[in-house]
């Protein structure tokens, strides 16, 4: 039999001293106990369908239930290895390593270049003369011979220590994803043998695999002379390799976790790179239980950073730029059918000739951040939805508790987060039990005295916004939350009043945050706080409630009256937008008449009650602050569940939140036609650019 027709069995029957099996089962590795190939789920026994060497190329289902890849390391069918046998290649490798150990690196350098897979036959055509082009037959033999090199090199894994760092670097740079299925199996076999024999190489191998998580285009792994490999096949090969290594070396999970964080795409990298990396992380999460929480922590933390940057960019823009962002997003959506595997640059909505223009760069950055946010959140909504198919089950509660942990540790402390929190908003409304879990978490944080003040205020805002905006939050829970918050508000007032000379946001911020939260809830859920109404009131028609004798839930009126008219004077400190809207509704529904207090507050200066260096404004004069401007001494109107505006993922939450429904005649200043047209224009700009301010101002 010729050397070019070696069968699988002949390749496997190398001398006993160089058998692969002892390497994979070595007990001397630092990585601990190994599992069998069967335990790794990589053998060829899947539902009795037998061996299928081509199954690695099969696409996965849209539901992320990937078809199991057949993987039989004992049967690598290599029929040809070029002009030489594997035994000859083994001798060449042994000689090169021996000479390298003696300080003679000529053969070693040739071996390094060969194993990198960049032979002259592939890339170096010299002149463009067709006579100098590579011979197709020679290229085919060389492709097969490279497989023989990796089969032979596997037996030398115990010798590839620190002295062979250069060789290993070249081997790990070999573009194995862009070759055929057989080469991928041989290469994965080599990686497992290398890590088994050389434990310190584990970090290098895992880094090489994780680095490829962000690859999304075939051109990034294509190899000249080999058939194109689809993206799904390349990604599947990555996970076959990673799953195999993790199953053989369980301790590898702890090594992989920091690598995943270090290889995560930078925020300025394009959407396709972020999506590819997130998709691969979610695949890894399916077969690596020990990394499930770490992976979600990583995704959510990076998502929050993009969210904050996006919102800060939009806040700094004027109306012209925000309108340009909106137009850029619409233009991008019109090209959504563009081939994702195209090597063209990402769709640009503005001519590249303007790339040096500062305004163009700001618009481009904002648009790309919004698209990244939108796409990643859409992926996460899709991931979690099946887990809440039965929202009353313990399984759904377990998943929601994980989401609550992400919320408490990553989202809640981030003040400028705008959209990431809608994961908890959407899934938290699936059942009364989940609603209770979220509200309970916010209440615990809001009233734990050892918590940082800013975190307690944020928890109040989240709770109020959830209860006010949650379309699926039932009325009885609204009443319960209102009463619980009212109880804590009374307790705070009793403590603060003993030392209070007047309104001071710096000293009594928790009280004002809670008071503002109750006014916000009232503005959206006033109907749920009503016990009974006259018969002629139509619940579906807010106008029918005006000037009626309404019976409110007991204690609701008393809670609000006691605290509004206290010496703390929250109507002076809380956001003017919310105070104004509450005053209108409370007056017209005969709940409370607070306009005299608001008028008297106009003559009150907050600076006379403020403690500290800024009480008289002296510390602000050098910074060009207006001493008469008291806005810096009042609470902001941040409520985190204002309407969701990301165009693609918006579909998940469209039915989740209550829009602001102004009552005709209640806001006469907006009845003028010109004012309505101006407001409509603001609505369009803000909806397109994912920005919103005030209470229901742009719903």
Summarize the topology.
Blueprint: H1 8-12, H2 20-24, H3 37-40, H4 86-101, H5 106-115, H6 120-123, H7 136-154, H8 165-172, H9 181-197, H10 202-211, H11 231-248, H12 252-263, H13 271-287, H14 292-315, H15 319-333, H16 358-384, H17 394-411, H18 422-427, H19 432-446, H20 453-469, H21 475-496, H22 509-525, E1 530-532, E2 551-552, H23 556-564, H24 570-573, H25 576-588, H26 595-601, H27 618-621, H28 673-689
Helix pairs in contact: 4-5, 4-7, 5-8, 7-9, 9-11, 10-12, 11-13, 13-14, 13-16, 14-16, 14-17, 15-16, 15-28, 17-19, 19-20, 20-22, 21-22, 21-23, 22-25
Write up this protein.
With 699 residues, this protein is mostly helical. Among the domains are: 254 residues, no CATH class; 162 residues, no CATH class. Helix content is 52%, strand content 1%. It has 28 helices and two strands. A two-stranded antiparallel ribbon has the order 1-2. Helix 15 crosses helix 28 and helix 17 packs parallel to helix 19. The chain is elongated and about 100 Å long. The N terminus is likely disordered.
The share of residues in extended strands comes to under 5%
Mean pLDDT: 78
What is the overall shape? elongated
Order of helices and strands: HHHHHHHHHHHHHHHHHHHHHHEEHHHHHH
Number of strands: 2
Strand arrangement within the widest β-sheet reads 1-2
Helix content: 40-55%
The low-pLDDT segments are 1-73, 120-130, 339-355, 613-627, 669-694
Largest sheet: 2 strands, antiparallel
Which structural class do you get from the secondary structure elements? Answer: mainly alpha
Beginning-to-end CA distance, first to last residue: 79 Å
Radius of gyration, CA atoms, in whole angstroms: 33 Å
**What is the count of helical runs?**
28
């Amino acid at each position: 039999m010729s050397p070019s027709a070696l069968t699988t069995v002949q390749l496997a029957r190398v001398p006993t001293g160089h058998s692969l099996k002892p390497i994979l089962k070595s007990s001397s590795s630092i990585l601990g106990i190994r599992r069998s190939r069967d335990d790794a789920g990589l053998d060829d026994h899947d539902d009795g369908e037998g061996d299928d060497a081509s199954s690695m190329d099969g696409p996965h289902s849209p539901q992320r239930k990937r078809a199991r890849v057949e993987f039989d390391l004992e049967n690598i069918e290599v029929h040809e290895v070029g002009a030489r046998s594997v035994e000859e290649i083994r001798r060449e490798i042994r000689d090169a390593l021996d000479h390298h150990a003696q300080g003679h690196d000529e053969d070693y350098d040739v071996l390094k270049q060969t194993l990198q897979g960049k032979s002259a036959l592939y890339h170096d055509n010299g002149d463009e003369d067709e006579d100098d082009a590579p011979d197709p037959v020679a290229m085919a033999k060389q492709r097969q011979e490279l497989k023989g090199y990796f089969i032979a090199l596997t037996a030398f894994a115990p010798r590839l220590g620190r002295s062979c760092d250069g060789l290993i670097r070249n081997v790990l740079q070999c573009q194995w994803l862009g070759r055929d299925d057989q080469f991928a199996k041989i290469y994965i076999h080599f990686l497992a043998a290398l890590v088994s024999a050389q434990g310190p190489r584990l970090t290098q191998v895992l880094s090489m695999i994780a680095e490829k998580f962000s690859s999304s285009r075939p051109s990034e792994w294509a190899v000249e002379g080999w058939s194109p490999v689809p993206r799904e096949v390349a990604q599947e090969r990555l996970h076959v390799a990673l799953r195999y290594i993790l199953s053989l070396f369980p301790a590898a999970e702890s090594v992989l976790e920091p690598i995943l964080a270090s290889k995560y795409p930078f925020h300025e990298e394009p959407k396709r790179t972020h999506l590819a990396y997130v998709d691969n992380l979610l695949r890894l999460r399916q077969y690596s239980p020990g990394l499930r929480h770490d992976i979600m922590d990583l995704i959510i933390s990076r998502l929050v950073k993009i969210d904050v940057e996006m919102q800060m960019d939009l806040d700094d823009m004027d109306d012209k730029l925000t309108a340009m962002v909106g137009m850029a997003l619409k233009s991008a959506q019109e090209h959504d059918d563009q081939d994702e595997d195209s090597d063209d640059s990402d769709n640009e909505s503005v001519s590249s000739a303007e790339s040096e223009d500062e305004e163009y760069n700001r618009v481009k950055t904002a648009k790309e951040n919004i698209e990244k946010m939108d796409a990643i959140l859409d992926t996460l909504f899709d991931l979690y939805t099946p887990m809440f198919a039965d929202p009353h089950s313990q399984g759904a509660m377990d998943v929601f508790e994980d989401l609550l942990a992400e919320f408490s540790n990553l989202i809640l402390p981030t003040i400028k987060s705008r959209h990431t929190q809608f994961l908890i908003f959407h899934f938290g409304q699936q059942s009364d039990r989940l609603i209770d879990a979220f509200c309970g978490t916010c209440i615990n944080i809001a009233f734990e005295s050892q918590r940082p003040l800013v975190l307690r205020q944020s928890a109040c805002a989240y709770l109020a916004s959830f209860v006010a905006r949650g379309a699926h939050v039932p009325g009885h829970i609204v009443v319960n939350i209102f009463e619980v918050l009212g109880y804590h508000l009374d307790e705070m007032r009793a403590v603060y009043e003993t030392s209070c000379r007047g309104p001071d946001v710096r000293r009594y911020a928790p009280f004002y945050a809670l008071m503002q939260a109750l006014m916000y809830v009232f503005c959206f859920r006033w109907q749920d706080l009503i016990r009974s109404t006259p018969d002629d009131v139509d619940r579906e028609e807010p106008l029918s409630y005006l000037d009626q004798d309404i019976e409110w839930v007991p204690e609701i009126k008393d809670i609000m009256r006691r605290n509004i008219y206290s010496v703390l004077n929250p109507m002076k400190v809380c956001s003017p937008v919310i105070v104004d809207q509450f005053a209108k509704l409370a007056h017209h529904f005969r709940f409370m008449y607070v306009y005299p207090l608001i008028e008297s507050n106009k003559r009150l200066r907050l600076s006379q009650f403020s403690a500290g260096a800024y009480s008289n404004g002296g510390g602000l004069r050098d910074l060009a602050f207006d001493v008469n401007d008291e806005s810096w001494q009042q609470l902001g109107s941040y409520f985190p569940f204002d309407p969701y505006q990301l165009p693609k993922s918006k579909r998940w939450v469209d039915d989740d939140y209550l829009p602001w429904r102004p009552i005709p005649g209640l806001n006469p200043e907006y009845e003028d036609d010109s004012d309505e047209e101006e407001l409509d224009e603001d609505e369009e700009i803000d909806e397109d650019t994912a920005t919103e301010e005030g209470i229901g101002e742009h719903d």
